[in-house]
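Feature request, filed as a ticket because there's no other form

It would be nice if the structure record came with a short human-readable summary line next to the tokens. Right now we just get the raw output. Example of a typical job, pasted below so the devs can see what we mean:
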Amino acid sequence: MRKLLLAHPEVQVVGEASRVDAALKLAELRQPDVVFLDVQLRGETGFDFLARASFPLPRIIFVTAHDRYAAEAFRVEAVDYLLKPVEPEHLAQALRKAARRSGGFAGTEIAHPAALQSLGLTAREAEVLFWVAHGKSNPEIAAILSNSPGTVKKQVQSILDRLGVESRVSAALVAGRVLGIARDSG
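Raw output as currently delivered:
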């Protein structure tokens, strides 16, 4: 991560920790704007870090090889969930999202996929559209939702049909308005 972050001069790495206790001390002392958090931290988890923090939490971006925890990460209001190996463009997108989030966790209402059911979507379609709106590809969505890419492709087409739009970008824009997130225009 440190190497990937070198491409972002606006980011200053203020510390690293491999254990929850050390990460908590470091985060409380340094008060970072964003914490890149792995799911597995030497016998504990990134979720333990979140549960044990006794200070206002910064914005959290999970960076992990474990795709099965993505839904839980967003339930605890993570800004993004990056799968290793991290693609530079996905990191750049996550940093832009983190920069747009003004209040971190304390008192901030965070978008949730269920809000998209108001568009006439099923719960699963709402989840798929949530991830489309967050810039995830069909294979990434399939991994997050424990589905096949083919099934996700069919679900995306169903979403496009229900919304009366012709592209993923148009669907993401509709979702963005409901979720209160903005899509990058470039």
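Something like this underneath would help us a lot:
The domain at 113-179 is CATH 1.10.10.10 (Arc Repressor Mutant, subunit A).
Strands lie at 34-37, 40-41, 44-45, 59-64, 80-83.
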